[in-house]
Specification:
With 387 residues, the protein is α+β, with helices and mostly antiparallel strands. It has 4 helices and 24 strands. Helix 2 runs antiparallel to helix 3.
């Protein structure tokens, strides 16, 4: 070898030796070829959060929408036939018991009244003549100047005249009463809800022409689905608030449940009697009623646990022994604002995934990010009903 090349070869050999020494230090001879990553950092293992399902007492509120109505309504009708001559009230007016609401043309009734008065005057005149005749016969028979039959005839005529007067007075009273029937009076104090007649219309006796809402207790009336009446709230106390002003509130109790279902809407009418009605809750005002169902045992999970599988609600169940997850269909009882109440599908003690479900597949290995305590059962705000 040439003396000029010796330094170069020596430098090359030195570089190779240093490289071999560095490799040996970085990778010992007994180290494996590849090193496994920690489970939580393995891309094939999903990181999830779970809770343990437990059963607890669950109460739910029912929210209804209805309106204020009177507990008693009265159909007002004329008590005699005739033609309407005057109408003095409108729908929405408050009327008193003796207030005149409408008037019929009283021509026939006034004529009958005049005839009854004339008949009474005639009967009274005959009675006066019969009294004079009887007194004369009484004096004559005491002096022996008349016969007994004449005296008896005079007495009979007196009694007949008196009966005629009584009959004429009764006929006069009937005529006066018939005249009073031409004036339509409510009979009770209340508010006019509707009317079905106009001036000039001919009405029949007993034909309802007005509907009055009587003053007094009020009802909050709701139309609810039949399923709600099958399982009513444990406490029949309903808290009612005015929709336009929640400060106007009242408390009531279920007073009446209709035995039939409305064919058009498929709902049942429920009347809640109010203990004290605020002035703001006028007739027809829209109100909101809230009642609470009796407490029961159920599993409550957060919304984040809900998953859709095969077009049905489902949750992911964590198997702590295998470290894997599986999908399971569930039956939802109620949806709350931030949780769901299950009717079935998950048993108490099972572990449910509540975070990270979007990355899961059946049988996948998962790692737990944290172990949370089971959520405290809360009431479900889902209600049914409405108008």
């Amino acid at each position: 070898m040439s003396p000029r090349l010796r330094p170069v070869l020596t430098a090359t050999a030195l570089t190779a030796a240093l490289s071999a020494l560095l490799v040996t230090a970085a990778f010992p001879a007994d180290a494996p070829a590849t090193s496994a990553l920690p489970e939580a950092e393995d891309p094939s293992v999903a990181l999830v959060r779970v809770v343990t399902a437990t059963e607890g007492p669950v109460t739910s509120d029912v929210v209804l929408t209805g309106d204020i109505q009177a507990q008693a309504q009265t159909n007002v009708a004329f008590r005699t036939n005739g033609k309407v001559a005057e109408r003095r009230v409108e729908v929405g007016d408050h009327v008193t018991a003796d207030q005149v609401l409408a008037v019929l043309e009283p021509l026939t009734q006034r004529a009958n009244l005049d005839n009854a008065r004339a008949a009474l005057v005639s009967a009274e005149a005959q009675l006066t003549q019969a009294k004079v005749t009887f007194e004369r016969q009484k004096q004559l028979i005491n002096g022996g100047y008349t016969t007994r039959p004449s005296y008896d005839n005079a007495e009979q005529q007196l009694r007949t005249s008196q009966a005629a007067v009584d009959s004429a007075e009764a006929a006069l009273g009937t005529a006066e009463e018939q005249l009073s029937y031409t004036e339509l009076r409510a009979g009770v104090s209340g508010i006019v809800l509707s009317r079905t007649f106009e001036v000039g219309q001919v009405v029949q006796a007993g034909q309802a022409v007005m509907v009055l809402a009587q003053d007094g207790p009020r009802d909050a009336v709701f139309n609810v689905y039949e399923a709600l009446t099958a399982h009513p709230p444990g406490d029949k106390t309903i808290h009612v608030t005015l929709q336009s002003d929640p400060a106007a509130a009242a408390t009531g109790h279920v007073r009446e449940i209709s035995p039939t279902v409305d064919a058009a809407s498929g709902t049942v009418r429920v009347k809640v009697g109010l203990e004290a009605t605020p002035p703001a809750m006028s007739l027809g005002a829209v109100v909101i009623g809230r009642g609470r169902f009796a407490s029961r045992e159920a599993v409550v999970l957060p919304w984040s646990a809900l998953y859709r599988f095969d077009n049905r609600p489902a949750v992911w169940i964590y198997d702590s022994a295998a470290g894997t997850v599986s999908i399971r269909g569930v039956e939802i009882d109620r949806y709350g604002f931030d949780n769901i109440v299950l009717k079935g599908g998950v048993r108490s003690g099972e572990t449910v995934v509540v975070a990270g479900i979007q990355f899961l597949r059946p049988g996948q290995h998962v790692a737990l990010a944290a172990q949370d305590a089971a959520p405290e059962p809360t009431k479900s705000a889902a209600g049914e009903g409405g108008r």
